[in-house]
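User: Can you recover a sequence for this backbone? Please restate the input before giving your answer.

Assistant: Of course. Working from this structure:
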């Protein structure tokens, strides 16, 4: 009889333990219940600037900054891209497309890579990876090409992006020309100097005393070489040919 009671006690203790475990699970599940997010995502972006903040940053003056960029630092910055991108000539595509010759090349330049529909749409709007376009994309890929499959959050530091683009240019894109420096953005430049360089048209009869080398100031016009901008021809235009071709000093139309 005592043996039967022993096994009954053991069996009852097991049932009691299982009951306690079930009760604890149910109670803790009710207390710590969480709802799934309405929209799954993994893209992390920096917060937008507050309304009424500083003006939008101008694109870099590539003609001034690229020739002095640190290509070695750009190669080091590219290390964060190597998990997805190959940059060797003829190298295979990875998670992302091969980037050899990307600077100045066409958007969706890597043959055989399955680009997103968002990138195809972007190509119709901005078909070439120019300096400004690459700079905007590297800053925040998901913002510049909404819907892109590239999950990289972007590089916020301007100098790091310049160095990286200089390195990318050294890998198969050396033939893509560096634009001339923007005279209006050189140290010590004045509005009158910018106008003389052809960046902006000069209003008739305005500011003659501020530009002694241009126009007629109390006598015959100065025809010396110093008074003539390099881009000036026999039919001067309001904007120099180089500035007009590269869009320096202007907002890129592909923004």
């Amino acid at each position: 009889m005592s043996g039967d009671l022993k096994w009954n006690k053991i069996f009852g203790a097991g049932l009691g333990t299982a009951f306690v475990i079930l009760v604890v699970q149910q109670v803790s599940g009710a207390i710590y219940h969480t709802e799934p997010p309405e929209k799954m995502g993994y893209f992390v972006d920096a917060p937008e600037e507050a309304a009424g903040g500083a003006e939008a940053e101008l694109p870099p003056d590539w003609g001034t900054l690229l020739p002095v960029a640190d290509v070695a630092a750009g190669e080091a910055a590219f290390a964060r891209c190597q998990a997805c991108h190959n940059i060797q000539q003829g190298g295979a595509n990875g998670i992302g497309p091969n980037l050899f010759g990307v600077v100045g090349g066409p958007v969706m330049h890597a043959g055989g890579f399955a680009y997103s529909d968002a990138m195809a749409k972007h190509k119709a709007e901005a078909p070439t990876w120019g300096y400004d376009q690459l700079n905007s994309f590297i800053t925040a890929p998901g913002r510049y090409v909404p819907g892109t499959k590239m999950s990289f959050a972007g590089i916020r530091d301007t100098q790091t992006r310049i160095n990286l683009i200089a390195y990318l240019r050294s890998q198969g894109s050396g033939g893509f020309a560096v634009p001339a420096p923007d005279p209006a953005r050189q140290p010590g430049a004045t509005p009158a100097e910018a106008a003389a360089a052809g960046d902006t048209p000069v209003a008739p009869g305005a500011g003659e005393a501020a530009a002694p080398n241009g126009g007629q100031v109390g006598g015959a016009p100065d025809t010396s070489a110093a008074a003539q901008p390099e881009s000036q021809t026999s039919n001067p235009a309001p904007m120099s040919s180089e500035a007009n071709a590269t869009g320096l000093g202007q907002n890129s139309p592909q923004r």
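That completes the design. Confidence is low (pLDDT under 50) at residues 45-54, 198-255.
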